[in-house]
Fold:
Amino acid sequence: MRKIILASASPRRKELLTSIGLVFRIVPSKIEEKPNPRLKPKAQVQFLSLQKAEAIVSKVANAIVIAADTMVVFGEELLGKPRNLEEAKKMLKKLQGKMHTVVTGFTIIDTESGKKVSKSVAVKVFVKKLSNKEIEKYVRRENVLDKAGAYAVQGIGAVIVDKIEGDYSTVVGLPLNLLAKELQKFGVTVL
Structure:
């Protein structure tokens, strides 16, 4: 079986790949992300995941590299990771009681053949109405600074999300169903 490299230090992506039985090594892509302001969210996460994957291709031989990027889209606004707790609270105040979209893109590159594919999935997420006190408690309890939109759907975050329309794993950080389908094209089978 080919080596699989996850170009991410995200503990959530690590958990997701582990949950489907893949054996992989982590080689984080430590690039400065450079979004293209002309791209729409689905194309943007594909573009960023491609940058991350390409940054480590030369560091690994005979491997399948997987990289990903996730964005929260509220209306026309892109919400990335908050810089501090105050920004996190502002993000949650925007999202509470409303629907937003989580878009996750991934890229797979075969370092031997150069074959590559980038895909993305969008999911609708509905956050329940939250009081200022609930937002304050949430940001103190959860590590919100490493999460796009300042929240996670897993763990304590499950109590702030009313509903998800689409693939749960996409919201966590990697659309497993589509990823598994694309990995088959690279000779990696999950089932």
